[in-house]
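Re: the request from the purification team.
They wanted to know what the chain is likely to look like in 3D before they choose a buffer screen. I agreed to run a prediction and write the result into the notebook, where they can find it.
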Amino acid sequence: MAQRRQRWRHTGGALATAGVMVCVCAGAAGCSGSGAAAEDARGADDAVGLLRQAPDRLEAGGSSKARTAMEMATGGTRVTIRGEGVYDFRRRLGELRVMLPQDPAGRGEHRPITELLAPGALFMKNRGAGVPADKWVRVETAQVSDGNLVTGGATDPFAAAEVLRGTRTATYVGRTEVAGTPVRHYRGTADLAAAARSAVVPADRDALRAAARGFATALVPFDVYLDDGGRIRKIRHRFSFVNRQKKGAVAVASTTLLYDFGVPVAVRLPRSADIYDGRIAE
């Protein structure tokens, strides 16, 4: 197992550096009465404290459907990866189908990658060349330099929320809508090292510590939209990691949209016999 993890660190990071993409969901401005205005005033006064509690609000919500997107410009080409699935915030388990874009040569679309998200681990099926069709690839999130915030082409929805535990600055922007739901829009910056110290689950702490060390900067700008129950409906992070080949920083935008709270989620993790133990092609 240790050898497999080591091989992943040397070869499997290609998915993170080969592409990651964005999905931007615009909201229309909404109007509010005096009660909502009073709540908005309180939210503006304590934006930092409110956002640090956002992961707990998601856990109370139980589960939801999720859409994810990542965007990165590399070599003059803008790459976009999209995902869709479900997530159980209490058990920290989720399943996403991630769609890779066409390659630069214009060949056909890749098969969707099935990703299972679990505390401390990411499982991927249809990972790519060299992996049998019936096998899963396992990635230890604390062993990759970004803590799996971008490695799989999708940010784990709860990890996206956990970043907010490290909120340093936050500004209340105003009321709007996301997918027809009234929300409050906040903009700020989070510190990954501080988020790691505040994370409740040890596996989350380890992954966020890895991200704090591995990114070009531990400070993460974000925009987040909370519904009236304080739950995240949309969150967008802007990560920056080092491209060692080009000796510069690469900006990655990751957007997560959450909806249909309370949806049933049934995630079954692979057996050990179903996990690939060979070398992974880049």
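For the purification team: Helices lie at 2-11, 14-18, 34-45, 47-52, 54-61, 157-162, 192-198, 202-214.
Please add any questions underneath this entry.
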